[in-house]
Amino acid sequence: MYPNDLLYTKTHEWARVEGETATMGVTWFAQEQLGDLTFVELPEIGRSVTPGEEIGSVESVKAASEIYSPLAGEVIKVNQDLENAPELVNQDPYGRGWMVRIRLSARPEGLLEASAYAALTAGQGH
Amino acid sequence: MQELKTTPLTSWHRENGAKMAPFAGYDMPVQYEGILAEHRQTRESASVFDICHMGEFTLEGPGAAEALDGLVTQDVRKLAPGRCGYGFLLNPKAGVLDDLIVYRRGPDRYLIVVNAACEDSDFVWMSQRLPQSLALTNISAKTAKIDLQGPRSREVLEDALGEDCGRLPYFGFAETGFQNAWLLISRTGYTGELGYELYLPSDAALDLWRTLVGHPLARPAGLGARDTLRLEMGYPLYGQDLDPEHTPVEAGYGRLLGKAAPFLGKPALGRVNERLIPLLIDGRRAARHNDRVLLPSGAEVGAVTSGSFAPSLSCCVALAYVRADAAEEPAFRIAAQRAELDARRATLPFYTQGTARNPLD
């Protein structure tokens, strides 16, 4: 549920850092809590983002939630498949359900390892 | 917080991985495998819903027909035995206290099915206004309700209960048995699909539930899918789209209010301040309960009562009360939490392929 090669936020985003760029999305826990996603709003390409900044939102049949950037940098790509197929986030949150690619302007800071994130979520939810 | 009530099926839901949430004071299943899958299952095959939270009253005694006729909007005296009718319980200002189904079981024998949240207040309201000579009994606690809905529901029902038991007219019902218990089969529902609402004693509910969900064409579905299914048909939900501040005429049910005989609230039905209108929203971002409704000019004219992504339509739909003088406008704006949405005046049902009224062989 929480791959070891990713970093996590307390607000349920994940980040895969690869050199100067990182890919991010929302975690298995987030999509499980929201249920079937019906809408994903992503940021404009070129936007500068800072850690903890609201960069988009997701809606499910019953709920809505914000997406926060885990990292500092510039948005260089967004997953346009999610516009018409938000269910990819439910089906494959760390793969085809990725959301945003960021060119990093600073090293990741304050993010959780998989084990710490798993411990955080263990006490939440149903 | 008051402890949540359970149904005879609550343990089954938990053991089978349902996500549970409070609804009308009950611990109810919102979904099992997912709202979208359960919605599709209901439109394409058959789903089984735990609706045990709803309330049931019986009314019996000489003069029951005349007395009930004065309290509800249905023409209960004209209702033939074996038929049921949808209508409303009104206050003196014609505000909706509840929407309910009245079943005529015999000349002076009725079953009245009410919303869970209104069960206690309806019972008091009706008790105070019906003659003491009649027996009004709240049988909700010992009565289970299971809905079987979907185009294949007749096959599921008849495999479980016997040939031809599903052969009923729309809004017709029959009283029969399941094992050694009483069972009422009603060809009604809240999804727009062919289907049945099944009433039986609580202690027999789990056996019937297991039989139905064990059928290869049927799966359990939760209140999440029930809500998207009913909203695609434009069926109102009490507490959101119906309330004591609005009349059934304002809610769009003038066609059901033609009864000649007097009934409580009837003289006030002419008051029309707002109308409940259907709205189609382009795109996938949904309007939600209480979002403000504006004209293109920016003037605020009302508020959304129900809104959701509509899985069978791949866009969003909403119901909203707007000022009566704005109700026929073709275009609106909805001030949703994160964006302003364009909405178009639509007609009901939003979803037009439903099988509920299909004739049966």
Distance between the termini of chain B: 51 Å
Spatially, the strands of the biggest sheet of chain A line up as 1-2-3-9-8-5
- Largest sheet data of chain B: 6 strands, mixed
In sequence order, what are the helices and strands of chain B, one letter per element? HEEHEEHEEEHEEHEEEHEHEEEEEE
Taking all residues together, what is the mean pLDDT of chain A? 95
Q: Helix-strand pattern of chain A, N to C?
A: EEEHEEEEEHEH
Portion of residues in helices of chain B? 10-25%
Strand order of the largest sheet of chain B: 10-11-12-9-3-13
**What is the number of E strands of chain B?**
19
As a percent range, the share of strand residues of chain A is 25-35%
> How many structural domains can be distinguished in the coordinates of chain A?
1
Give the assembly state of these chains. Answer: heterodimer
Q: Which class do the helix and strand fractions of chain B yield?
A: alpha+beta
What this model shows, in words?
- The complex is a heterodimer of chains A (126) and B (361).
- By secondary structure, chain A is of the alpha+beta class.
- Chain A has one domain: OB fold (Dihydrolipoamide Acetyltransferase, E2P), CATH 2.40.50.100.
- Chain A contains three helices and nine strands; from the N terminus they run βββαβββββαβα.
- Chain A has helices at 28-34, 87-91, 114-122, and strands at residues 7-8, 13-18, 21-26, 37-41, 48-49, 54-60, 64-68, 73-78, 100-104.
- In chain A, the strands form two sheets. Chain A has a six-stranded antiparallel β-sheet. A three-stranded antiparallel β-sheet of chain A has the order 4-6-7.
- In chain A, a hairpin with a 3-residue loop joins strand 6 (54-60) and strand 7 (64-68).
- The longest helix of chain A is centred in the C-terminal third of the chain and has 9 residues, at 114-122.
- The radius of gyration of chain A is 13 Å and the shape is globular.
- The two termini of chain A are 16 Å apart.
- The mean pLDDT of chain A is 95.
- Chain B has 361 residues and is α+β, with helices and mostly antiparallel strands.
- Chain B has seven helices and 19 strands.
- Chain B has a six-stranded mixed β-sheet, sandwiched between helices. Chain B has a six-stranded antiparallel β-barrel with strand order 14-17-16-15-18-19. Chain B has a five-stranded antiparallel β-sheet with strand order 5-6-7-4-8, with helices on one face.
- Chain B is globular and about 65 Å long.
- Chain B starts with 9 loop residues before the first helix and ends in a 16-residue tail after the last strand.
- The mean pLDDT of chain B is 97.
- Chain A binds chain B through residues 35-36, 38-39, 41, 57, 59-62, 64, 86-87, 90, 126, and chain B through 19-20, 30-31, 34-37, 224, 228, 283-286, 288, 308-309, 311, 337-338.
